[in-house]
Structure formats: structure tokens, C-alpha cells
Amino acid sequence: MTQTWNPGIERPVTAVLLAGGKGTRFWPASRSERPKQFLRPTGERTLLRATWDRFVRLVGKERILVVTGPSLVPMTRHELPELPPGNLVIEPSGRDTLPAAALGARSALERDADPVLVVAPTDHAILDEGAFGEALARALRAAGAGALVTFGVRPDRAAPEYGYIERAGDAEPDESAPVARFHEKPSPAQAAEYLAAGRFLWNAGIFAWRARVFFERMREADAPLADAVAALPPSARPDTPAWASFAEAWERIPRISIDRALMEKARGVRVVPLEAGWSDLGGWEALGALGEHDADGNVTAKDALYVHARDCAVHRHGGPGRGRVYALVGTENLIVVDTDDAVLICRRGAGESIRDVVLRLQAAGREDLL
After folding, report:
1. Is residue 26 a contact partner of residue 283, using CB atoms and an 8 Å limit?
2. Distance (Å, rounded) from C-alpha 132 to C-alpha 138?
3. Residue 164: beta bridge partners?
4. Which are the contacts of 197, defined by CB distance < 8 A and separation ≥ 6?
5. What is the pTM of this model?
6. Could you give the count of Cα atoms lying within 13 Å of 40 in the half-sphere of its Cβ?
7. How far is residue 175 from each of residues 82, 171, 210, 221, 270, measured CA to CA in Å?
8. Residue 132 has pLDDT above 70, yes or no
9. Is the pLDDT of residue 93 over 70?
10. How far is CA 141 from the centre of its chain?
11. DSSP class of 352
């Protein structure tokens, strides 16, 4: 995309980038002090930097707000030195996506009367920037007209690892379509049915709406939640006296996602189809799908040697140094991840259990590995 990108709406557009997540399914590379968005799984840029670059080309750096936690502020500023100081929005603690989005919307309203917002995670991959810009323009037009908009990725396989969005009706939408229902992650059999039906899309977790419409719909969907957000004192910085009262009020906001708190309950929800090489990079298996493969389905890497092995992958992140070779012999569906202080070995499809590894390390007091 170029600077001539124009979504075709009169209202100002602000991007709210959510950069406070942990990404535990990318353990052992992802840690509390260097979570997933600061990794470089797809190239030289971190996922945060790639997301920033994408939106700078579309809306410009002055119209990007980045929401993150206090411990990640130094790393965020290092990754994004061009980020205007006032555009860094600090949430006292991670309370899932809805409170973070609300904090970003409130900050946006301090600058403009009723801007159109695009709310996006910073730990996803988008391979086709042009197609993303076109889909975003469609979403912003629908949002400018008063809709709550979500992005739905056209599925190319039956994927039980994603939530799904069901479009109302069978017709292919030109711009956007009403949402009939949101579906949690299905069983493999249900995922196959969704793929065959043709009206189900993967839930990409990217949203667009007018800031004031967002707060109006939130009050309709969950008045106590809206009251807790409205009760927040003015945003503060951790090094100011007002931080303690702001943080105390913040902890009274429920921990809840945008989908559960708002999109599944609200009226006027629409979905825009997205075909832009999207991946949520939900774990090591998803990362392997983006790499090159040999004839046996193994992810190719210069330090990996596969002998009578099929559908395996080796990932080294800050490992013991050059020269180490990883030889996988007679194995199938195996993922190996090597870092400075930990090695993960798991079967494909077992990525959800990595969270249990993190919980066990917490229980054992191994904060050095978290």
C-alpha cells in the first residue's frame, strides 16, 4: 500500500494496536519480559514492528495508539522509536482485549469527536498488505455507517483451532455481511461441516467501529462493564502520583474478550471477508505452516537434518549458537524448539498443552523460565 490509500470516509481513522499479550503457546521463546509480539518468527522484523509498519502505511504514525503494559514500555519504545510519546497507552495489567480496546477508544476520543477505530492485535501475520488495506477500507466504511465490524478469514481447510463467524445468508457480500452467530472452536468434524457450508469464516480478532458507537453498544450489551470502564479516572503514567488510583479502578474491570463482552451480544454486527495471507500464529504448528517444506512435509532449516522423518519442524530461538545440528530420525509430527535455557519437544496438535507447561513452571516457582 502507498500513502494514497483512502478508505472513502470523512471521519478520521485511528488504529488501536493491542500489544500487551503474553503468547504462552510460543513458550519457550515467548516469555513474560519478551512476549510473542517481540519475536521474529517470520523474518527480520518483530511481529510488533511488522504490524506498526503496516498501519503506518495506511493511517500514518500520528494516528496509531499502542496499548501495552508497564513492563513492556521500554521494549515497545525500543521497537517503535517513531511512536509519538502521547500515543503509548498503558494498561496497569492485562485484562484481555475488551478493557484494552476501551482504553484505546477513550484515548482516541480525547483527540477527535468520534473517530473510526480499527482495533488489531500485534502478534498476527499478514502476508498480502495490499489485500489487507482493501479489506480494511471496506470495514471502515461499514463502521463509519454505524456498524460494529469484525474480520473473517475465508477458510482454505477445516481448522478446529480457530473460532468461526457465521454470515447471515448464503450470498457472497460485496462489502460486508450481517453476522448470524459466533462459534467457539469446533471439533474436527464440525470444522469440516463449516468448510463445506461456505458461509463460515475464521475469526481474525480484528475489529472496526466508531468510538462512540463502541461505547453505546457496550452499555447495551453489559451495563455493569460499561459502568466500570466509565468509572476509570483519567489515564495516568506509572511514574505519576495518579497511577495508584487509576490502577486500583482498572482492577475492578472484568477480564473479558471483545467477542464475549460485545460482539456476541450486540446489534448491528457485520463481517468483512479477509483474504490477505492471515495467520494468528497461535503456536509453533501455525508458524511451521508458513515455512518451506521438503518432500516429506518437514519444515526446512539449515540446522535441521531429517532422516526417515515426516511432518516435523525444528525452531531455534537464541539457542546455544552456530554449529549445532538437530537430527530427527524416524519421527513423525514432531516439533522441537530450542532456546538458551529450555527445549520444547511436542507432537503436532498438542500446542494447547504448552499452557499447562507454563502453569507447572509457575507452580514450581521457576520464574526464570517464564
Report:
1. yes
2. 10
3. 183, 202
4. none
5. 0.93
6. 8
7. 33, 12, 17, 25, 10
8. yes
9. yes
10. 22
11. G
User: Of the candidates 161, 123, 165, 113, which has an alpha carbon nearest to the alpha carbon of residue 278?
Assistant: 123
Q: How many CB atoms lie within 10 A of CB 184?
A: 12
Q: How far apart are CA 181 and CA 183, in angstroms?
A: 6
Residue 166 neighbours by CB under 8 Å, 6+ apart: 179, 180, 181, 182, 183, 199, 200
- For residues 222 and 145, the answer to whether their CB atoms sit within 8 Å is no
Give me 329's grid cell: 530420525
Q: Check if the beta carbon of residue 63 is closer than 8 Å to that of residue 15.
A: yes
The Cα 40–Cα 44 span in angstroms is 6
- Residue 319 CB partners (closer than 8 Å, separation 6+): 338, 339, 340
**Which domains occur in the chain, in start order?**
13-281 (3.90.550.10), 285-369 (no CATH)
Amino acid sitting at position 85: P
How far is the C-alpha of 138 from the C-alpha of 143, rounded, in Å? Answer: 9
- Cell 492485562 locates to 94
Whole-number Å distance between alpha carbons of 186 and 189: 8
Pull the grid cell for residue 288. 511451521
- Whether residue 91 contacts residue 250, with contact meaning beta carbons closer than 8 Å, is answered with yes
Chain-centroid distance, C-alpha 223: 26
pLDDT in tens, 237-265: 999 999 999 999 999 999 999 999 999 99
Contact indicator for 213, 123 with CB cutoff of 8 Å: no
Cα gap 64→70, rounded to integer Å: 18
Q: Give the whole-angstrom CA distance, residue 136 versus residue 273.
A: 10
Amino acid at 21: G
Residue pLDDT, tens place only, 184-217? 999 999 999 999 998 999 999 999 999 999 999 9
Position with higher pLDDT, 201 vs 323: 201
Pairing type for strands 200-210 and 164-167 reads: antiparallel
Can you tell me the mean pLDDT for 93-99? 95
Give the Cα separation of 284 and 349 in Å (integer).
10
DSSP conformational letter for 177: E
Q: Measuring CA to CA, which residue among 30, 23, 76, 20 is closest to residue 317?
A: 30
What count of other Cβ atoms lies within 10 Å of the Cβ of residue 352? 12
